[in-house]
Amino acid sequence: MTEYIGHDAAWRQFSSAMLAGKLHHGWIIAGPRGLGKAGFARRAAAALVDPEGQFATMIDRGSHPDILTIKRLPKDPPKEDEEIDENAELKRSISIDQIRQLQSALTTRPGLSNKRAIIIDAADDLERSGANALLKSLEEPPVGTYFLLVSHASDRLLPTVRSRCQMLRFEPLDDQQMSVALRAAAPDISVQELDSYIKFGKGSPGQALDFMGLDLRQLEDAMTSILHTGDRNNQIRSLLADQLALKAAQPRYEAFLRLAPSLIADCARQMQAGDVTRATDAWASASALANRAIALSLDKQSVVFQMGSLLASVQPNKAA
Question: Which residues form a coiled coil (predicted)?
Answer without folding.
Answer: none
